[in-house]
Amino acid sequence: MNRRTFIKQTCITCVSGGLIPFLTTSCQATHYVSGVMDATGIIVPKSEFTYLKKEQTLTRQYIIIQNDKLEFPIYVYRFSDTEYSALWMKCTHQGAELQAAGDALHCPSHGSEFTNKGAVSNGPAEKNLRSFSIIVQTETITIDLRQS
Ligand code: FES
User: Fold this and answer.
1) For 2-42, what is each residue's pLDDT tens digit?
2) If you measure from the C-alpha of residue 78 to the centroid of ligand 1, how many angstroms do you get, rounded to a whole number?
């Protein structure tokens, strides 16, 4: 395949929707937090899910917890003020670190994809992601690291 044919076919794939959903969802700025460790797990203020834009308070779909005490980051998705999911960002295929793309997680190694609840949506991975219980309080959420 020559260069011109490659570019033409690649553009057709992008325009036909192959990459557009991934690119548009991944344009959202990812917000990283370290949280505070305690005996239960990691505590994160709910305010980490909000930000100001043009004097409006907007809500982030997800945040990523990165902490020196964690081997992998944790993706925390907000469904509502009282419902969240917390997922270990380690691919269940061969252990690569996952990338967040909006409401999905993508593996850069072999292309596995997972939903915001940790279910496999595209292989080669066959097992769902490790998930953590979340304790929701008025001002904070706690990712419970004692189990799962
Ligand atoms: S390590 Fe993630 S798909 Fe292979």
Assistant:
1) 445 444 444 344 334 444 444 434 445 789 999 999 888 99
2) 25
Question: Among the atoms of ligand 1, which is closest to the Cα of residue 95?
Answer: 1
Total-model pTM: 0.79
**Domain 31-144 class?**
mainly beta
* Nearest C-alpha neighbor of 53 from the set 80, 21, 31: 31
Ligand 1, atom 1: closest residue by C-alpha: 94
Residue 19: CB atoms within 10 A of its CB come to 13
Sequence ranges of the domains in the chain: 1-29, 31-144
What is the rounded radius of gyration, in angstroms, for the C-alpha atoms of the chain? Answer: 17
Nearest ligand 1 atom to alpha carbon 96: 1
74 lines ligand 1 (CB under 6 A): no
Residue 148's pLDDT is 57
**What is the C-alpha separation between 26 and 90, in angstroms, rounded?**
18
Mean pLDDT of 47-60: 90
The token pair at 137 is: 């309080």
The pLDDT, as a whole number, for residue 53 is 87
* Token digits of residue 119: 């279910």
How does DSSP classify residue 54? T
